Amino acid sequence: MAWTNKLNGKYSLETLNSKESIVNTLKERIDKAQKDKSWFSFEDVDYKNMRIDDYRIIIKRKPALVSFMPNPDNGFIIVHFNQINNEKMQVNAEIKPYKIGLWLAIGVLIPFSALQLLMMHGVYKYGLLIISWSLVLSVAYLGVLFFRYRLKMYLETVLADIGIKGDLIRERK
Questions:
Q1: In terms of Cα–Cα distance, which of 117, 139, 121 is closest to 129?
Q2: Which of 21, 22, 35, 16 is nearest to 86 (CA)?
Q3: Between the CA of residue 55 and those of 29, 31, 44, 109, what are the distances in Å?
Q4: Distance of CA 151 to the CA centre of its chain
Q5: Which residues contact 125 (CB under 8 A, 6 or more apart)?
Q6: Mean pLDDT for the chain overall
Q7: What is the per-residue pLDDT across 50-78, written as a single tens digit (0 to 9) for each?
Q8: What is the pTM of this model?
Q9: Pick from 22, 9, 18: which is nearest to 159 by CA?
Q10: Given CA atoms 115, 142, 68, 77 in this order, what sign does their dihedral have?
């Protein structure tokens, strides 16, 4: 949906590292992580949840506390590498947090609203309906923004771990 795409974040960064060195470093670390069969580690970056090809990385972020859920990811990050010239490379990242909390909030609010309209009498029921919708949807929206922030911090950790230094610049629409 188009309105939920506004919750995604697009970031860019220019670096002096070459595309080949970054891709090779990531492939080595992902292969090393795939061979490791331990289910728990104290490392900052989990390379087991990354997929890479020659021009992009797909990173999934798994939080520790909600891993019992069927889909425990906060969302995913798609990172593209664009070689500008011989010296510079541009890293473009799109952060896509999962919006399941927003959809669950809407799914709970619809039957609650119908029940509220049937059971309450008077004009004030519409005011209570507006207040309940705004409270629940604002909490769900803040949850999506929190996941996007956590994914951005994780992206900065991944980029620093593979040797890319610099500040991510948010692209405004």
A1: 117
A2: 16
A3: 17, 17, 24, 42
A4: 4
A5: 116, 117
A6: 81
A7: 888 877 888 887 655 554 555 556 778 88
A8: 0.79
A9: 22
A10: positive
